Amino acid sequence: VAQVDGVCLRVACRGISDRDALSKPDPCVVLKMQSHGQWFEVDRTEVIRSSSGPIFSKIFLVDYYFEEVQRLRFELHDISSGNNGLRDADFLGAMECTLGQIVSQRKLTKALLKQGNTAGKSSITPMLNVRFSHPLKDFFSKSDPFLEIFRVNDDGTESLVHRTETVMNNLSPVWKSFKVSLNTLCSGNHDRELKVSRRVTFKKIQWECINPKYQIKKKNYRNSGMVILNHCKIIKMYSFLDYIMGGCQIQFTVAIDFTASNGDPRNSCSLHYIHPYQPNEYLKALVAVGEICQDYDSDKMFPAFGFGALIPPDFKVSHDFAVNFDEDNPECAGIQGVVEAYQNCLPKIQLYGPTNIAPIIQKVASSASEEMHTKEAMEYFILLILTDGVITDMADTREAIVHASHLPMSVIIVGVGNADFTDMQILDGDDGILRSPKGEPVLRDIVQFVPFKDFKHVGGHFSVGTGGGVKGQEMGDSRD
């Protein structure tokens, strides 16, 4: 199950052409998302009268999934006075992008297109604001106490950030401790006001419960009790989105299984068979996952490695060789570059074994470790491993993953073919915390495994092992 984060989008336009010489347009932006090839309206902004460069106050709340290509379409309409509907509105143009592009760039400006052509100098800029959490909606009896905490926003409005459990029939309740992100609680500002019974900051350890009605009616009324904060601890835990929001760029690395269990590439039954007109299973998996990850990689240069093959010139087995055979520069230009390097590589190597993936995890972890110890630490590493079956270095792989869980790094393992992938499910950690052979647990779940046959049937959605946190970095929000 994918972890859902929410993002807030605000929209601005500039350079909108006037409707005629006497009046400026009355713009409105409609946000649509694509699902199963169709565009569906998500929400729309307010109408701003007589403006060629509107900045809309409407905020679009969109659930964000790293594992999906979420295609957005921003349509600009000119709404005539007295009519807020789109039926009689003039369509001024649209721009399309993915939510991943906005998240990775924070602010994206693209020209308006109308019937495939640029609509003059007009452009739309969707901007990423802050993350949000969905508030709860339940209400309970006043006779059984519970506590609600609201964040006071910059505009004076209040947002519910937490509601405790209800303690039945108790005038001196002790509520259970709870966790809430610092970003949700106070937008990272320790001095931001909160509202419990009155406005406080979370740094205060106690405050009075005041009932305004009792203040008016009862002369000797002081308060309805005290709320005491028994314990507050700030723990830095970073998710994938925290790194991206903190300015990190993705370094996307591909590792391909060239062991003999895949079958002779010259045989049509081989998972590595190069069909003259159709991609094999490895190419399908590479393109499907690469399409998602490439939005976050600024230079679109992807290191590509192979493992489990005998490679020239001496034909010794290697578990981390450059697919383009340039060990000093294993990067390929885009996903298509990886595809071409893979196709050129196959005739030159001999599929062999065993299926060891610890070396390639350690190679990428070494780069992530170097990045983590720089002052800026501006890269997050994602390793995509494409493999056909059971790994043979399970203990070393577990050790490598536990070590990598302390780094700005995630591992996606895509199982190609119909082999037994039981070991991969263990590495995934969904059924329990993964531990090294010495018993050390992973700091966070950084591995996600998916059989490609399932991935294809659900429309190309997968969950990336990017949850949890990494200590020692100063990016993103903190979690309490």
What does this structure look like?
The protein is α+β, with helices and mostly antiparallel strands. Helix 8 links the parallel strand 22 (379-387) and strand 23 (409-415). Mean pLDDT is 80; it is low at 130-142 and 459-480. It has helices at residues 99-105, 182-186, 212-217, 240-245, 281-293, 334-345, 358-372, 394-404, 422-428, 452-457, and strands spanning 5-14, 27-35, 38-44, 60-64, 71-78, 90-98, 110-114, 117-132, 148-152, 158-163, 194-195, 199-200, 206-208, 226-228, 249-257, 301-307, 309-311, 316-318, 321-322, 331-333, 350-351, 379-387, 409-415, 447-451. The chain has 3 domains: 5-132, Sandwich (Immunoglobulin-like), CATH 2.60.40; 148-228, no CATH class; 248-456, 3-Layer(aba) Sandwich (Rossmann fold), CATH 3.40.50. The longest helix has 15 residues, at 358-372. The strands form 6 sheets. Strands 15, 16, 19, 20, 22, 23 and 24 form a 7-stranded mixed sheet that branches. The protein is flat, with a radius of gyration of 27 Å. Helix 7 (358-372) runs parallel beside helix 8 (394-404). The protein has 10 helices and 24 strands. Keywords: Calcium, Metal-binding, Repeat. One of its GO terms (biological process) is cellular response to calcium ion. Belongs to the copine family. This is Copine IVb. One of its GO terms (molecular function) is metal ion binding.
